[in-house]
Amino acid sequence: MEVAPLAPILRLPPEVAERIAAGEVIERPASVVRELIDNAIDAGATEIRVEVRGGGLELIRVSDDGHGIPADQVELAFERHATSKLRVVDDLFRLHTLGFRGEALPSLAAVAEVTMLTRTDDASSGTLLALRAGEVVRRGRAARQRGTTVTVRHLFHPVPARLKFLSAGRAESLLAGQLVRRYALAHPRLRLSLLLDGHLAFQSSGSGTLDGVLAEIYGPAVAAALLRLDAPCSEGASLSGVISGRAVSRANRQHQTLIVNGRPVANRALAAALERAYRPFLPRGRHPIAVVVLHVPPSELDPNVHPAKSEIKLLRETEIAEALARAVREALGSTPVRPAPSDDFSLWPVQYHLPASRSRLGEAGGPGWEAADTEAPPLRAALPLMRIVSQVRRSLILAEGMQGFYLIDQHRAHERILYERLLRGTAGGQPPGQSLLEPLVLELKPHQAASLEERLPFLEGLGLSCERFGGRSFLVRAVPWLPTSENVAPYLQELLEEAALPDDAWRERLLASLACRAAVRRNRPLLPAEMAELLRDLAGTDIPAACPHGSPLILHFSEQFLARQFEW
Ligand code: ADP
Ligand code: MG
After folding, report:
1. pLDDT confidence of 101, banded at 50, 70, 90?
2. What is the pLDDT of residue 3?
3. Which of 16, 174, 209, 555 is deepest in the core (most CB within 10 A)?
4. CA neighbor of 9 nearest in space, from 114, 120, 93
5. Is the CB of 9 under 6 A from ligand 1?
6. Whole-angstrom Cα distance, residue 326 to residue 213?
7. Nearest-CA residue for atom 2 of ligand 1
8. Confidence label for 533 from pLDDT (cuts 50, 70 and 90)
């Protein structure tokens, strides 16, 4: 972001002012945080401190070390449509600042008690201005270093109707906190801190890289497990960022951030493109972590479509949405999936990195676990050492390890094992196909038949031997050989339809369905030796934490969790 020169604040001429999107600038506490951070960034701040109390309704204070406002212009800054950033209508399409319309400070002063203390480099002290109901109630001078502090108290007290909608202070704090983190992601060089009710809730160090900020938000392990996005799109535009792989997901969309020219914003078309690209890879109701950083020429961006600046319009929206979907599919399709530790206990933490050659599992009823090797073993996700205790509900394997105990979903574990075998195209050295006693004839819809026919060589390579049998019919002679006692023949129709999907991800979906149909069901008793084999094979997979559809397959009850729950 370019540092705005110290241009004077001027009132916009009426023909410019009337082009500004009308409506409520300050919708909720997070809008205040947005406007004040925008102002600080526009002033060239390197450090911004945000303080929020009582969900922002009690107090919001934003301090920056930017260039400040000259003493004789401070009052003018609180007039409507008075700005140092925009002069003529055309400036709207060559903006290098986040603010542009001179509405934030006056709108804020109308709905709260506002105090500003600001000092420029050449002033001998700071200028203080306090406003109530939009009127100046105090002018003065006070000591301050270069920069600006805006304090907002009793937000919406003059508008009781608005207050009624904002009863839950905690929810407002969360939203404000989320926005501050998004600004940190958008401006990695910035040192941003957030104090929530007196406690330091977040701090970015100004490392200068997106990776650095991601580690500060999600922890280094999750940050390292994220996949890089990089895609040139239309001329002069670039798209970068990170997305989570298939093994890391969240129950809501709050971890998706879109940054356009330094603005954390919402955009429906891009959000939809992201979700669509993930659909084949994540179970329903799960959402990726994503930070999408888009740069477009200012002439292709209209930030003036929403009074609270939370949405933007892109000139080449469809094209950029497609580039995003493509980049996501490529990143997901070409990167081996790695599970990452999670702060909830539904995915086991990756703590052990053992050489692949070493057995990671104690035998059932055997001597138990051994200590993990710590010398520089290959970095691959490995199962913790564990000892099988028993089968629970004929569906789950109960095992214990040094870090607590684990429940492993037998069906999903087997799915993962079979899926990776299919992916590698090996079926344990056995001939790839297993002939059916009686070949089966199956019929597909005309459009499915055409695409299936093209894909028959791929199916053959899997051991699914199938040929066109006239018209829309196909003759299946053999099914893939898989180490399983489940019969996949009843599901052949469904599998062939999967193989005929018009989707780019048809291969992965077919393999996932095949693995699902062949995997040992829940509600099947397992012998200790069978459970041991299952866990040993699972330990040999690349992603032992998630089934091929992305659902977790191991629950970890850590020592800490047990101690907390039992109050030991
Ligand atoms: P806008 O940002 O759209 O110009 P605002 O009402 O937010 O409108 O601010 C009005 C003017 O006050 C800005 O144009 C800028 O010159 C000045 N200003 C506001 N906040 C700051 C700040 N933190 N540091 C320096 N100048 C500021
Ligand atoms: Mg502003």
Report:
1. very high
2. 45
3. 16
4. 120
5. yes
6. 25
7. 99
8. very high
Mean pLDDT of 37-42: 98
Tell me, rounded to whole angstroms, the distance of Cα 387 from its chain centroid.
35
Q: How confident is the model at residue 343 (pLDDT cuts 50, 70, 90)?
A: very low
Structural domains in the chain plus CATH codes = 14-203 (3.30.565.10), 226-333 (3.30.230.10), 431-480+485-518 (3.30.1370.100)
Q: Is the CB of 31 under 6 A from ligand 1?
A: no
Residue 236 is predicted with a pLDDT of 83
Arithmetic mean of pLDDT, 400-407: 86
Q: Is residue 260 within 8 Å of 1, Cβ to Cβ?
A: no
Question: What Cα–Cα distance (Å) separates residue 50 from each residue in 119, 173, 194?
Answer: 18, 12, 5
pLDDT at 321 over 80: yes
Residue range 287-295: average pLDDT? 93
360, 351 in Cβ contact below 8 A? no
Probe residue for ligand 1, chosen from 39, 63, 152, 190 as the CB with the greatest number of ligand atoms within 8 Å: 39
Residues 303, 309 contacting (CB under 8 angstroms) = yes
How many Å from the N-terminal Cα to the C-terminal Cα in the chain?
Answer: 52
The answer, yes or no, to whether any atom of ligand 1 lies below 6 A from the CB of 465, is no
- Give the residue among 7, 131, 151 at the shortest CA–CA distance from 69: 7
pTM of structure:
0.65
As separate numbers, helices (DSSP H) first and strands (DSSP E) second, the chain gives 16, 24
- Given a cut of 60, whether residue 285 has pLDDT beyond it is yes
Distance separating alpha carbons of residues 8 and 380, to the nearest angstrom: 58
Query: Over the chain, what is the mean pLDDT?
Result: 85
Give bridge partners of residue 500 from the DSSP assignment: none
Name the one residue in this structure whose structure tokens are 């030991």: 568
pLDDT of residue 566: 83
**pLDDT band for position 276 (50/70/90)?**
confident
The answer, yes or no, to whether residue 189 has pLDDT greater than 70, is: yes
**Residues 6+ positions from 468 with CB-CB distance below 8 Å:** 449, 453, 456, 474, 475
State whether residue 257 is helix, strand or coil.
strand
C-alpha span between 18 and 318 (Å, rounded): 29
Categorise residue 57: left if φ over 0, alpha if ψ from -120 to 50, beta otherwise.
Answer: alpha
Q: Where are the alpha helices (DSSP H) in 375-505?
A: 410-424, 446-462, 492-499
pLDDT tier, 334 (very low <50, low <70, confident <90, very high otherwise): low
**From atom 8 of ligand 1, which residue's Cα is the shortest distance away?**
102
d(CA 341, CA 270): 28
For ligand 2, the distance from its centroid to the CA atom of residue 83, given in whole angstroms, is: 8
Do the Cβ atoms of 147 and 169 come closer than 8 Å?
no
Does the CB atom of residue 303 touch ligand 1 within 6 A?
A: no
Q: Which range scores top for mean pLDDT: 278-282, 407-411, 546-550?
A: 407-411
Tokens representing 289? 């972590």
Measuring CA to CA, which residue among 363, 523, 362, 499 is closest to residue 442? 499
In the beta sheet, which residues pair with residue 468? 474
3-state secondary structure (DSSP) of residue 503:
coil
Distance from chain centroid for Cα 132: 40
